[in-house]
Each structure stands twice: as C-alpha cells, then as structure tokens.
Amino acid sequence: MSVDLIIPTLNEVDGIKNIMPKINQDWVDRILVVDGGSTDGTVEEAKRLGYEVILQKGKGHGAAFLTGINATDSEYILLWSPDGNHEIEEIPKLIEKIKEGYDQVLISRFAKNSINEDAGYLDTFGNKMFSFITNCFFGGHWTDSLNESRIISRKALMEIKEDIEKSKMSSTQQMSIRGLKRKQKICEISGNERPRIGGERKMKPIPVGAALSSQIINEFVFWKK
Hints:
About 40% of the residues lie in helices and about 15% in strands. By secondary structure, the protein is α/β, with parallel strands linked by helices. This is Glycosyltransferase 2-like domain-containing protein.
C-alpha cells in the first residue's frame, strides 16, 4: 500500500523545525507540505530541511487538503498538523489500523485513555457536543469528529471530494459526516494531545461554532445521498 503524508501549514515555523525532523520518512511514500501563505519562514525552513513544498490554492483548511490531494496519487492520504499537538508515534498507528480494511481512521483526543493537555473547557465542550450531534443525526460513534489528524483511502476520498470542494466550511467535520452518510467503514484510535509548539491557535470558538452548527443543519436538512 502507498501512503502520502500531507502537512498543511500557515505560520508554523517552530513546528516545522521541531516536529518534522522526528517523522520517520520510511513510514510513508511521500511527505508534502502544503502552505497557505506563511510569513514567518515556514516555507523556507521546510525547504531547508529537504521537504517538498507546494502553495495551496484558495483559503482555509479544506483548500490546503484539496491542494494536497490533487498533487498526490497514493492509495491513502494521511493528514497531519506540524503543531506538535499529536505525538509522531501515532502516524504508524494510523497506518497499521487502516490496513484492517477501514476507509477512514482518525485520532481521538477524547477517547478512553486519551490525554488532552491543550484543549480548554470551551474547546472540549464544543468538540464533544458537535461529535454527539453528528452521531445523533447521522448514526455514528465519533468521540472526536473534528480532529484533522486522520488517514483516509483514496477510494473513500473520491466519494466525498466533490462535497469538500463545494463546501466553504469545516472539511474535517464534513469528512466525518459524509463518511457516515456514505456508509464508509470508519474508526478512531485513542491519542494524546500535547501543548502546541509555537505559533498561535487559529481557531476562533464563536465563529467556528456557528459555522459548524450551520454545516450540520445544512447536511441534515438539505443533503441526501
């Protein structure tokens, strides 16, 4: 099986310096940094370390993911953040798990035995709430439907790629929802979330919460398979 690792970046130079060198390049076939317009030297540092870098087309996380998808042809795509939240050792765990025949496997920061040192009370409440609502509306068992750190088969991705392209909202929540609606075989593995390394958190709770709520309503009311 072939696996390409996509690393979306936006002003993550500290993470690139400290996290990327720890990734065992034998774990995957290709590592691709997709940059959204960093101004802190992220691109230069990634290139200095020898990584392939491309500039994303459009704005937002979904645009970065789609840019990476369109630039690769592997059987599986692994999406990973360089901010240090997740432990590098979880990358091979994702790869091993999807070999069991799953379409999507993601890391849960809120599963049993997971340790979360980064999310505050508001973030934790919001994530658990949206995961619960997603499960109630679409019949899943997510404990962390919003986490971007996941691996997905290209076959499964092609089933929902057009949906992500049309959406202006969260691509991670949409992959979780559409995976359920398309009856994909999905699962989570428990993982720890450590304090991020450098940079600033880009998530704004109130506008993001409103967008996620709107997305769930839109998916439930207006979209049918």
